[in-house]
From TrEMBL:
Pfam assignment, any one: HATPase_c
InterPro entries: 7TMR_DISM_rcpt_extracell_dom1, Galactose-bd-like_sf, HATPase_C_sf, HATPase_dom, His_kinase_dom, Sensor_HK_TwoCompSys
Molecular-function GO terms, alphabetical: ATP binding
Name recorded for this polypeptide: histidine kinase
Residues in Histidine kinase domain copies: 533-621
Transmembrane segments: 194-211, 218-238, 250-269, 281-301, 307-325, 337-356, 376-395
EC number per UniProt: 2.7.13.3
Organism: Methylophilus flavus
Length: 627
């Protein structure tokens, strides 16, 4: 089963919403008709009069049908109007309580039945009570309603910039009208109040996000649009406006242009559409609409509002085209979701515009009770975009936190690396200081002790003493010259030791047979390795000179599969059979030097009867010079 995404869920919701809203009013009408046993009066007489009580019969009454829309039947009329209804109420029950129900009027209404005032919606002077979207239900006092010859007067008021109207009044049992009244009040008033609170919450959230990231202007503009919508929604349920009715109507009608402009600028920016000239046009509409409405004469005010609402819808259509291109050509899911949402809002806005313009013959076909639908669809946009923006903000915040964690890990890693580098630097500095001190000591030894050993060589009274002094001098030179960390070529090292051996053995008439089979000049030995290898060769040579009574010494260097092999053998007397090869100090020193090299040394009798030394050095201990 495929997992439903947020995008698919909102497609289902938005597809269901129009049918629900369009059927809302017809359901109300059907319920009311089914429950009604009363009368609905659609014929009346009308007169414009500033009288606070019902005008006399001699006033200029004229016949009219309800619903009566002043813009169509009295286009130049403003102020107070009176409606007179004369009717019979058959089936009157003296023991029941009856009521008068006014489904819609503008801007306020009060009623007189058979000479008695039975109810009022509030003040008829500024500030005028605003009941244009609020149904009124007046309870009829006992013995007021008669079976025949009833006269009902309804007073309405339509100040300048407002649209006067009255829909057919209904008289019925109170318990029959009460549910109808409560349902209409819930839909028109309570739902608007609830959605306003929701929109204010979304606006606060958007503004708080913008406050933390002021470069994201889409959040700030959308939050501002939410507050403008919430203020505009006051018009649906506020009773007493804080300013005169004329100015209030200007602000309410101009707010639609402000909301549309802020919506489009923020939403297009949200999906990456930034057209400078189009945004300038939107800002111009936002400013010009209230200015022109303020300057428009009262007789043309409704035409001006119809014009600006039409311009706004055309601009929104262009915005939808931009969203369609971004959504389907650029494959932007957010743009497609906004396209569907705004399309539904535009459809409902067009419906409300037709009601507002009162095009003859169309309103009755659209909807009988003239319920405004845009107020129900706009909160869906705020909710969807609020979720989208919040989701995007949370996603960015999560990415920021993840990046911050990665950065912290990198900082820790770099800090550890710096510590390691510092420790290495400290080690290098210590080694450098040690080397400098060692060089100083070696130099002092060479200059002082070396001179004394050289003198001892020349003053020695017998060859053995001279050889001993010469060996000590050579050891000193090796310590001085081979105590560093540099590497030297194996063949160069062996060549130096060959020269030394030839000189020492030549002084005592012992023939040297030197066989170096290593042709690889890239093999390297470190200075400690060279020093220990030389000590083994020198110690072996010294033993031959002192003890072997040999006439020949053979030195061979060769390679095997796993080792570098050094063999040194003489033709002397060898070791006595009863002696321990590890007992002598010289042989013991050779074994220690071999261990320091990481190799193995073996002693055996040579083919000529002397002693044979075999030193095995593993190849992994020997480095190669890069070519």
């Amino acid at each position: 089963m495929k997992k439903h995404t947020l995008f698919h869920s909102w497609i289902i919701i938005l597809g269901w919403l129009p049918g629900f809203l369009l059927s809302l009013n017809s359901a109300l009408a059907d319920d009311a008709a089914a429950a009604s046993q009363g009368i609905e009066i659609s014929q009346a007489s009308f007169v414009l009069s500033d009288s606070e009580t019902p005008p006399s019969a001699q006033s200029a009454w004229s016949s009219t049908s309800l619903p009566d829309i002043w813009k169509l039947t009295h286009p130049d009329a403003f102020g107070t109007g009176w409606y007179r209804f004369q009717f019979d109420y058959k089936g009157l029950d003296a023991y029941e309580i009856y009521a008068l129900y006014l489904s819609r009027m503008s801007l306020n209404a009060e009623a007189y039945l058979n000479g008695k005032k039975i109810g009022s919606g509030g003040s008829f002077t500024e500030p005028v009570s605003r009941n244009w979207n609020r149904p009124l239900l007046f309870t009829i006092p006992p013995d007021t309603l008669k079976a025949t010859d009833n006269t009902l007067y309804i007073r309405v008021i339509a100040p300048q910039n407002s649209q006067g109207m009255l829909y057919p009044p209904e008289i019925n049992l109170l318990h029959t009208l009460q549910p109808e009244y409560e349902k209409a009040r819930f839909i028109r008033i309570t739902l608007n109040q609830t959605s306003s609170l929701l929109i204010v919450g979304i606006g606060l959230l958007m503004l708080s996000l913008w406050w933390r990231r002021k470069q994201d202007t889409a959040y700030g503009l959308f939050g501002l649009a939410a507050f403008v919508w919430a203020l505009q929604s006051l018009n649906f349920y506020i009773i007493t406006a804080p300013i005169p009715t004329t100015l209030w109507e200007i602000l309410v009608n101009a707010s639609f242009q402000a909301i549309a402009a802020l919506w489009l600028i923020s939403l297009l920016d949200f999906v990456g559409i930034r057209l400078k000239r189009f945004n300038q046009l939107l800002w111009a509409i936002l400013i010009l609409a209230p200015v022109t409405l303020l300057l428009t004469p009262a007789n043309y005010f409704m035409l001006a509002t119809d014009f600006w609402h039409l311009v706004t819808m055309l601009v929104v259509i262009f915005g939808l085209a931009l969203l369609a291109k971004t959504g389907f050509v650029d494959r932007n899911k957010d743009a497609r979701l906004l396209l569907m949402t705004l399309s539904i809002i535009l459809l409902f806005a067009f419906h409300d515009w037709l009601i507002h313009t009162n095009v003859p013959g169309i309103n009755a076909w659209l909807i009988t009770e003239e319920e405004y639908l845009m107020q129900f669809s706009a909160p869906v946009l705020f909710l969807i975009v609020g979720l989208m923006m919040t989701s995007r903000y949370v996603g960015a915040l999560n990415n920021y936190e993840q990046l911050n964690q990665e950065l912290e890990q990198r900082v820790v890693s770099k800090h550890q690396e710096l510590n390691d580098n510092f420790q290495q630097l400290q080690t290098i500095l210590k080694e450098q200081a040690t080397l400098e001190e060692r060089e100083r000591i070696y130099q002092d030894l060479h200059d002082d002790l070396g001179a004394k050993l050289l003198t001892l060589v020349y003053r020695a009274q017998n060859p053995n003493n001279a050889e001993l002094a010469r060996s000590a001098l050579q050891d000193l030179r090796d310590v001085v010259s081979r105590a560093g960390d540099e590497s030297s070529a194996l063949n160069d090292i062996m060549a130096d030791y060959r020269i030394e051996c030839e000189k020492r053995l030549g002084d005592v008439q012992i023939q040297l047979l030197w066989d170096n089979q290593i042709e690889d000049d890239t093999l390297q030995l470190t200075q400690p390795q060279a020093l220990n290898l030389g000590r083994i060769i020198r110690e072996t040579t010294s033993n031959v000179i002192r003890h072997a009574q040999a006439t020949e010494l053979a030195v061979a260097l060769q390679s095997t599969n796993h080792h570098l092999l050094l063999e040194i053998q003489d033709n002397g007397i060898g070791l006595p059979a009863s002696s321990d090869k590890s007992a002598g100090r010289g042989l013991s020193n050779i074994q220690k030097r071999a261990a320091l090299l990481g190799g193995e040394v073996h002693f055996a009798a040579s083919a000529s009867g002397g002693l044979k030394l075999s030193l095995y050095l593993p190849w992994q201990l020997i480095s190669r010079q890069p070519i």
